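Chapter summary example.
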Amino acid sequence: MLSQSLSLPSGPAGPQAETRDELDSFGLILEAHAAQASADAAESFLKKYPGSKFAEYAALAAMHSYYNLGNFTRSSELARVAMRIDPDSVDALLHSARLLIAPGCEDSLKFAEADSLTQSGLIHLKAMKLPAAADSRAWLRTKNSFLATGQCVLGWLLFREGKLDQATKLLEEAANLDPQGEYFYRLSVVHAANAKTAEDYSNARIWAQRAIQSGPAWVSAVGREQLGKLQTNGAQ
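The structure predicted for these 236 residues follows.
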């Protein structure tokens, strides 16, 4: 999902293609309407133009596309490609942290690394300026999506530490900044863990249903699993 990584500078200060074919090949990534098509176009571009000024942005596009497809391994590999080009890439830093808290991950060492990457990403985000000739509204959406990723990671880490109220606050902030199925799913898990009344369980179920409806497919799958657990536990 390249929309999350459009900190691409524009105008004379931005990257310039050396040939028309290079520009057209990068354009195929932007024009892709499905995650797999975007990933395929980005992979093709990186193979054909590994030294391109656009390589970082192609890697970021593929990184998000593979994440939406549920291929966390390849998504992580592309994040590392982007960070080799730009070690301070806010998008790649925060996304790498997000991958370390993927559903099923219970590794305390990975959680510590996720915290470190998030803190670094947020520091660089705070220092970022509106790129020359960039659309201010598009830039704000991009910045909010980065901030939401950071809030999601930090909120989940607080949840794993048992700090449920603080976790809920950060995850709700993430969902408000950038409504995504993953954030809805995580809110359902946190609300269920903190549930004391029938209304609490109802809220957890609502968040799970929103996750299922929002997708992508892997989020819908874990959302259905979460909803099943709530129903099994009598939260109907």
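To summarize the output: The chain has two domains: 2-178, 179-236.
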